Fold this sequence. Notes:
- It is built from four helices and six strands.
- The protein has helices at residues 16-23, 57-80, 97-106, 130-137; strands at 8-9, 12-13, 86-90, 110-114, 120-124, 141-144.
- The strands form two sheets. Strands 4-5-3-6 form a four-stranded antiparallel sheet, covered by helices on one side. It has a two-stranded antiparallel sheet with strand order 1-2.
- A hairpin with a 5-residue loop joins strand 4 and strand 5.
- The chain is of the alpha+beta class and 156 residues long.
Amino acid sequence: MWFGSSPAGVFGPVDPHLHSAICNPAGGTGQQSDTIIRTKMPTPTLSNARYHDASLGRRGLLAVCVYGAIFLALLAFALATPRGEFVLVVGKPGQSEGQVVELIGRAGGSFVAPGRFGWIAVAHSSAPDFVRKLNAAGAFLVLNHALAVGCLQKDT
C-alpha cells in the first residue's frame, strides 16, 4: 500500500478533506489538476545569505584576496624568523661586503659566507641574543639562514 492512498497515514488518521485536497487537487473529481501550489519563499537579503547566489561578487573576492595576503604574510614571517645559530644578515642596500662583515663582528658573530650581493651574508653565533645585537649594530634585516639558498649563488 502506497503512502497517502488511504485516509490512515503513517503518523495516524488523516483528515479526509485534507487527504482529498492533497491527493486529488482537482477537487475530488478524479481528474488531474494543472494547478501549481506556490509557497512563499523568503526574499534574498544580506541577512538571509543561504538564498543568495553562490558567486562571490566583488566584495567577496576582495575579502578572499585580503585574507589570502594576510595568510601569506604570516607564513612568510614564520618562515623568515631566525632560528638557530646561523642567520642571514641583510645590510642596507649598497653596503660593501666589508661593512657587513664589520657589522657581524660588532654583534659578536662570525662571517660564514658571502651573499649574491655585497650587503647580504650568512653569519654564525652561539649567543642567544645575536639577532638583537645584529639589529642594534645596524643590520637592515636578520632572517632565517634557510632563505640564503638563492642569495648565496653568485653569477659566473
